[in-house]
Amino acid sequence: MIKKEKLLLILNHRLTNIRHDHLHHITSEIVKREPSFICIEDLNVKGMMKNRHLSKAVQQQGFYEFRRQMEYKSKWNNIQAIIADQFFPSSKLCSCCGKIKKDLKLSERIYKCECGNVIDRDLQAALNLKKYGEDVLKRSVA
Asked: Is Plastid included in the keywords of this UniProt record (predicted)?
């Protein structure tokens, strides 16, 4: 029994190292592209952990570590890191007309707006975060 526990411990340690390595590669790749700014969401991880369907997946993603690495790597490379407020409706806001769809469920992966905009929910959020970051930069320059 002890051998199996030791093997399980080694495998868990290896899996943790793979996850950390992946985060380093992803964040380094983003910064290498030399964007003028990086905008990420301030996610309510505690709230997501309360959802029993999401908690294990959320726990394994390492959102805090991703944010921490993005912040320090962007600082090293003189790239402005912008953190969007956790209440910013990035996936519920139409990137075309600006209307907010309040009843959007997490299971709905395609965003459909009354204006005719049909787009993947994650791409929608990315476009809205880009615009949010641009707006923050404009306000800081003005």
From this structure: no
